[in-house]
Amino acid sequence: MTKTVILGVIGSDAHVVGITILEQALNAAGFDVINLGVQSSQQEFVDAATDHDAEAVLVSSLYGHAEQDCQGFHERVADADLEDVTTYIGGNLSVGQTDFEETKEKFQKMGFDRVFNSETDPEEAIEALRADLDIRPPESERESSRTVSV
Ligand code: B12
User: Fold this and answer.
1) Is the CB–ligand 1 distance for residue 21 below 6 Å?
2) Residue owning the nearest CA to atom 36 of ligand 1
3) Strands, E, within the chain: which ranges?
4) Exposed site from 47, 88, 122, 138, fewest CB < 10 Å?
5) Region Disordered: what ranges (predicted)?
6) What is the pLDDT of residue 136?
7) Cα–Cα distances in angstroms (integers) from residue 117 to residues 33, 62, 65, 70, 124, in the given order
8) How is domain 4-149 classified at the CATH fold level?
9) Which are the contacts of 16, defined by CB distance < 8 A and separation ≥ 6?
10) Ligand 1 binding pocket includes 23 (Cβ within 6 Å)
11) Confidence (pTM)
């Protein structure tokens, strides 16, 4: 069954390249992607997840204001009865050279299931989604990984 994921850049952030690449990779991996684009509000993510009965919400932030932009996000998610929806955040989540482990802990405490840095390859996000949403990779990929390991 196709799984729907909501993708977008939160707040006033206008960096579009990362989510465009993620959208293409997720589509190619068989996900149904609703791309909200840049400068999306918390409520737009929540409404889209409700309207499309999404399995996951992927929030992107590059410009360093993710913490402010995500304050109260998981309260909205809970108010909309979406606690079962998997939430990820990724990108350049802090201003400057902050230790990523600290950043990761901070966003996990805010309620995100997984936190990714700006070095993240889209394949990593796809593998994480497959694990968290209990999806087997398509047969073609299983075949090719078998061929490589022989
Ligand atoms: C291009 C660019 C711009 C362009 C954006 C054009 C556009 N419409 O996209 C312009 C010139 C407009 C711009 C503006 C600004 N920018 Co700029 N920009 C960049 C730059 C050079 C490249 C970004 C990019 O496209 N990368 C390529 C894509 C493929 O990578 P990516 O975005 O990182 O996405 C990947 C991963 O991060 C990850 N990922 C991203 N989101 C998510 C989400 C999830 C869930 C997952 C799993 C993974 C994931 O997967 C993606 C694909 O691999 C970066 C520096 C850099 N080298 O990264 C700075 C950078 C992001 N910008 C920065 C800043 C500060 C700004 C401005 C605030 C500058 C200013 N003072 O005006 C403004 C903000 C404007 C706004 N409202 O957003 C800073 C952010 C600093 C920080 N976070 O600490 C950076 C890091 C530059 C720097 N070193 O200072 N910028």
Assistant:
1) yes
2) 118
3) 4-9, 32-35, 56-61, 86-91, 114-116
4) 138
5) 131-150
6) 78
7) 21, 10, 14, 16, 11
8) Rossmann fold (3.40.50)
9) 9, 37, 38
10) no
11) 0.95
For residue 22, give the amino acid letter.
L
Q: Please give the number of the atom of ligand 1 that sits closest to the Cα of 95.
A: 84
Q: Could you tell me the two tokens for 58?
A: 């992927």
**pLDDT score of 97 more than 90:** no
47 is in an annotated binding site: no
pLDDT of residue 98: 75
Determine the 3-state secondary structure of 90 from DSSP: strand
Query: Is position 13 annotated as part of the catalytic site?
Result: yes
Neighbours of 5 (CB within 10 A): 26
Average pLDDT over every residue of 67-84: 98
pLDDT at 150: 41
